[in-house]
Design brief:
Elements: H1 3-18, H2 20-26, H3 36-39, E1 46-55, E2 58-67, E3 78-84, H4 90-103, H5 108-121, E4 130-136, E5 140-145, E6 148-153, H6 156-167, H7 174-180
Antiparallel strand pairs: 1-2, 2-3, 3-4, 4-5, 5-6
């Protein structure tokens, strides 16, 4: 191999390494790279799937699931990234989250505590804003708004219940779950 060919090969390898997340996103249309502050928590994370939640034809948000492992598990770290398509108050997001967790069997005592914590953490969002939730197994969940940290709920049961809204087999949105998990 000539020096020029080796130089080109090294340059190409560097470009591939530096744009890994972007290249991975290209294989899943509509999924933007994670904000850098989120990506630093799971540096090897790749998008597993993505889909859009609509309500009576109105787009609510586009979600994507990121993990470092080939197989998804609630026992491993991952990121659920939501890009909102319309405005909602943080209080409304927290309220809807509580309703969904109740449907999955969370206790009223837990729901009251978690609802208050989410209402303090979740910001109001506008179209184009994103909330990224990082699942930290055995520890809880950390949240980001447009790439900036907004809070953490350090309770493993909360994280399991919260991310179950999208990923539990009993979710109210089984088609979105399938899309997030990258299942055909």
């Amino acid at each position: 191999m000539s020096a020029t060919s080796r130089s080109f090969a090294r340059s190409l390898a560097l470009v591939v390494a530096l744009t890994g997340a972007t290249a991975a996103c290209a294989s899943l249309p509509g999924i933007a790279p994670l904000p850098s502050a989120v990506a630093t928590l799971l540096p090897q994370a790749q998008p597993r799937g993505g889909g859009e939640l609509s309500w009576y034809g109105l787009p609510i948000y586009r979600g994507s699931l990121w993990s470092s492992d080939e197989s998804f598990s609630l026992d491993k770290p991952f990121v659920l990234d939501l890009v909102y398509r319309r405005a909602f108050s943080g209080a409304k997001i927290a309220q809807r989250s509580v309703e969904e967790m109740a449907q999955l069997g969370a206790t009223p005592v837990d729901l009251a505590r978690w609802g208050e914590a989410m209402a303090r953490i979740f910001p109001d969002v506008r179209a184009g804003d994103r909330i990224s939730g990082v699942h930290l197994p055995g520890r809880g969940a950390r949240f980001f708004h447009n790439g900036q940290p907004v809070g953490e709920i350090a309770e493993a049961n909360f994280a399991r219940a919260f991310f179950g809204i999208w990923l539990d087999p009993r979710t109210s949105q089984p088609e979105l779950r399938r899309q997030l998990l990258g299942q055909k």
